[in-house]
């Protein structure tokens, strides 16, 4: 019977797929001990050694050290406890590797300089506390002084990246790019101007309905025009610009005149920064949200249409 059969080390190697040298190494360290020896002094192993070596090979491939493996096969340590510990350690390693991959991918795709690469590497290596401080600094720069307003408190939450404990490769790349963008003083200043402009509009506006986000108004008015192929210079665009100006005039509580059109153009230019849209795209990836609709074409159309009519 197989259970009574003793195997020489060569046969054990054939059954397990391990080399004779490896089995001898494990045997010398007491991980898999021989059951007996042949008259010539060669080691002999029973069928249990096959199962034991299969477990040893599996644990080694999973990165478990030999001293721990010996305690597992000797039943000194429960395997689930060892597995949990090593799974946690591997999760940390995977996170580090994903962040490194994110940096290297960005360097390759964007042709970064050595200085930019160094910055991205440092951003990827931030601790949880450092990451929270960076996020807090960015949000304070954008919303400080206005987030007592419940609407802005909600906006602040919607602009907060929540990096998972184990981000996937795409989330890791998005975090590194988000952090780089959040540290850009020019981008911070642009976000602050946008927030201050919206705060001023809310302070002067009337009903809640008139406080609709300008992006939503542009999307609803300009989206169909873009789909229809209407150009900003066409007569068909006149009514769209008039509707945009009327919305903004109601929002500010002032007439639709040359100054109102100037203010509208400035506001459109402020909120149309492509980096703002990229920021929202990165947030969606990090937080696992649906990808936001692109408003860049609609804003570009609106800006050109308003500017053309101001120049007439």
Question: What does it look like?
Answer:
This protein has 312 residues and is an all-alpha fold. It has 2 domains: 2-77, Multidrug-efflux Transporter Regulator, Chain: A, Domain 2 (Orthogonal Bundle), CATH 1.10.1660.10; 98-311, no CATH class. 70% of the residues lie in helices and 2% in strands. It has a 3-stranded antiparallel sheet. Helix 7 crosses helix 10 (185-204). The chain is elongated and about 110 Å long. Residues 206-210 have low confidence and may be disordered.
Low-confidence stretches: 206-210
Assembly of the depicted chains: single chain
- Pattern of helices and strands: EHHEEHHHHHHHHHHHHH
* Portion in beta strands: under 5%
Radius of gyration: 32 Å
Through-space gap between termini:
101 Å
Number of domains: 2
Helix fraction by DSSP (H/I, runs of at least 4)? 55-70%
Quick check: average pLDDT? 86
Query: What is the number of helices?
Result: 15
Strand order of the largest sheet: 1-3-2
Describe the largest sheet: 3 strands, antiparallel
Count of extended strands: 3
The best one-word shape is elongated
Structural class: mainly alpha
Give a short synopsis of this structure.
This protein is mainly alpha-helical and 312 residues long. Helix content is 70%, strand content 2%. It folds into two domains: 2-77, Multidrug-efflux Transporter Regulator, Chain: A, Domain 2; 98-311, no CATH class.
């Amino acid at each position: 019977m197989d259970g009574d059969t003793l195997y020489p080390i060569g046969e054990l190697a054939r059954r397990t797929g391990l080399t004779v040298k490896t089995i001898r190494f494990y045997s010398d360290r007491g991980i898999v001990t021989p059951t007996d020896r042949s008259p010539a002094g060669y080691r002999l192993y029973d069928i249990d050694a096959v199962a034991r070596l299969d477990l040893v090979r599996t644990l080694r491939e999973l990165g478990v050290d030999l001293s721990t493996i010996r305690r597992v096969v000797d039943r000194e340590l429960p395997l689930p406890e060892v597995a949990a510990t090593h799974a946690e350690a591997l999760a940390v390693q995977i996170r580090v590797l994903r962040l490194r991959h994110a940096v290297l991918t960005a360097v390759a795709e964007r042709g970064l300089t050595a200085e930019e690469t160094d910055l991205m590497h440092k951003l990827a290596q931030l601790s949880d506390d450092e990451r929270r401080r960076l996020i807090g600094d960015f949000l304070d720069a954008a919303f400080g002084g206005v987030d007592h307003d419940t609407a802005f408190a909600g906006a602040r939450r919607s602009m907060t990246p929540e990096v998972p404990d184990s981000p996937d490769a795409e989330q890791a790349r998005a975090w590194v790019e988000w952090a780089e963008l959040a540290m850009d003083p020019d981008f911070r200043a642009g976000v602050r101007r946008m927030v201050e402009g919206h705060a001023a509009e809310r302070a002067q506006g009337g009903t809640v309905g008139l406080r609709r986000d300008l992006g939503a108004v542009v999307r609803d008015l300009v989206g169909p025009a873009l789909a229809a192929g209407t150009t900003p210079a066409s007569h068909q665009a006149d009514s769209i610009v008039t509707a945009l100006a009327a919305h903004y005039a109601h929002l500010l509580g002032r007439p639709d005149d040359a100054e109102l059109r100037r203010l509208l153009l400035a506001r459109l230019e402020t909120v149309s920064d492509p980096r703002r849209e990229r920021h929202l795209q990165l947030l969606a990836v990090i937080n696992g949200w649906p990808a936001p609709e692109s408003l860049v074409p609609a804003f570009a159309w609106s800006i050109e249409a308003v500017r053309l009519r101001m120049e007439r």
